Amino acid sequence: MIKFNQVYKRYPGGHEALKNLSFEVAEGEMVYLTGHSGAGKSTLLKLVAAIERPSSGGVLVKGQNIRSIKSAAIPHLRRNIGLIFQDHKLLFDRSAFDNVMLPLQICGFDHRESAKRVRAALDKVGLLDREKTNPIALSGGEQQRLCIARAIVNRPTILLADEPTGNLDTEYSNEIMNIFKSFHQVGVTLLISTHDEGILRQFPARALHLKKGELQAAVAGSGQA
Ligand SMILES: Nc1ncnc2c1ncn2[C@@H]1O[C@H](COP(=O)(O)OP(=O)(O)OP(=O)(O)O)[C@@H](O)[C@H]1O
């Protein structure tokens, strides 16, 4: 499903964010990305989503080579990928419903079918009764759940989450992780970056540990290498 083969990523200015990464994530697998700040976790997720391209090496996502994928093919690839990134902010000039509707509008879906899908996504994250609420009136945990609803409304087969429990307390973090667990149970492939030791202990899965852009080890059933 996702395969990295000797991947390097150098940003303009010469900074090498990823060095010689090789690993695979199987279809339906849930995998954590761990490592200190600046270790390269976000960069790795951006390569999978074709937000960035590798400087060298191969990144295969659903059979597509991200290094050589044509720009015109990227929207099609992204329809299969749900992104929960810290810089993907909610829009505060519209309702929760309309925030989740946006990706479907961009894809040109029929309005009635879209409305059904939006409500199904809001239901999955427990926000169906808040559809008319402006996100500004939601708690941090609810806003994060709304971001998840927006990421899954396209029914992606891969979910990429960058520090999804970053600023949340334990109760909200567990809620978010239980939502991810339910996606994992229905076969979605998940790649989740986290610093949160509690989450790694409570929701064990394979972890890829990055240190200064290099992969340290892949450990089954534990968060840290
Ligand atoms: N667009 C960019 N241009 C130049 N350098 C960048 C860019 N994005 C990231 N970097 C650098 O690449 C390295 C890896 O950054 P990245 O954001 O991938 O790390 P991270 O592990 O996600 O960190 P954090 O946990 O703080 O989000 C850092 O040194 C960062 O400064």
TrEMBL record:
One of its GO terms (cellular component) is plasma membrane. GO terms for biological process: amino acid transport; cell division. SUPFAM superfamilies: P-loop containing nucleoside triphosphate hydrolases (SSF52540). Keywords: Amino-acid transport, ATP-binding, Cell cycle, Cell division, Cell membrane, Membrane, Nucleotide-binding, Translocase, Transport. Belongs to the ABC transporter superfamily. NCBIfam families: FtsE (TIGR02673). PANTHER family: CELL DIVISION ATP-BINDING PROTEIN FTSE, IMPORT ATP-BINDING PROTEIN. This is Cell division ATP-binding protein FtsE.
